[in-house]
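Each field is listed here:
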Amino acid sequence: MPDLSRSALAIRASVFAELAPRIEAHARAGGDLVALHIGDTYLAPPPGARFARVEPGDTDPALYAYGAIPGLDALKQAFARTLVTAGRGPRDDVDPARHVLVGAGATHAIFCGLRAVLEPGDEVVVAAPFWPLSVGVVRAAGGLPVEVPLTSRLYEDPGASAAAILERAITPRTRALYLISPNNPDGYVYGDADLRDIAALAVARDLWVLSDEVYADYVYDGAHASIARMPGMDERTLSAYSLSKSHALAGARVGFLVAPERVVALARRVATHTVFNVPVASQRVALAALEAPEHWMDGAREAYRGARDATLAALAGSGVRAFAPKGGSYVFVDFTPVLRGRPLRVLLESAIDHGVLLAPGDGCGEAYSSWARLCFTSVPRDRLMLGVARLRRALEGDPS
């Protein structure tokens, strides 16, 4: 038989593959499982941004035909306007026609952007811990991810130089840096000093920067800033955003990349040959979400902040270690103190038996095999507290 692609084989399967048999057994037994593993939200999207309300009936033929390949002009304009008005975007002059790529979710937009700037075999330094899909997306785009533990070190030592930590991994083959802020999974938010430090490194070593900012609307301590605004960075930064996170539209699959015109022009070619056009119905829902009143997002932010605080309080005294996330949707939990030589998988399987599911930390980096990601936005507060209580019983070895 012909060989399979070695580069595709290097892409990891689901981070939950090893836990799947235990999850399936729990389900067959009729067990209740509090799902704290997926980065989603229990909130419904803004009232005007729901499929049933976008087009009553099925009379609009545009919903069933191919759409504009670069995306709906109104959607790109609304997104650019949102970034500029909020003052947190990568630049003050976001031109929707030249700088904005519409993707089938941020995952697709990031892939198209990376594919536009990477040659096969280029190294991409990925700050760890990272979003579990990021290294696979880098590989799919032809790059070779190089993991560098960073944000966990910056939590432990706020005075450490982010650039000095990253620079040790840079080689002549390094083409780009990949950062997430607020970070998935530990919620670290890069401050101005961090970003200036990393920007100077990128300029000095002539690197692209993929700045994943999909959680930019959910910062609880401090403020979000984009590295593209640092000196010399506007023409070498690709900034990614997602309505999955900002407006509870994960199922609609609409994301954006804001990048220099020459990157967007090439990334659109890649997008054309992967999804052709993002579904029109999804783009209309996304447009409605961007036009929704700001109080919806303000309410979501406060609900998430409360969920974060309640999670940290519920974990206190359990023996585990966790940094208070400055933003995002997760608490990244270090179980090293309670494992007592056991592999994390044993504990996570026990947690499933007790009725709660977390994401294994090794999907966020090789250095995090004793950590796990807990999403505090995926279920309502009462279910969240039930899930953490079940986790604590698993930690205590309670068979009930």
In short: The longest helix spans residues 294-315. The radius of gyration is 21 Å. The longest strand covers residues 174-180. Residues 50 and 67 are 20 Å apart (CA to CA).
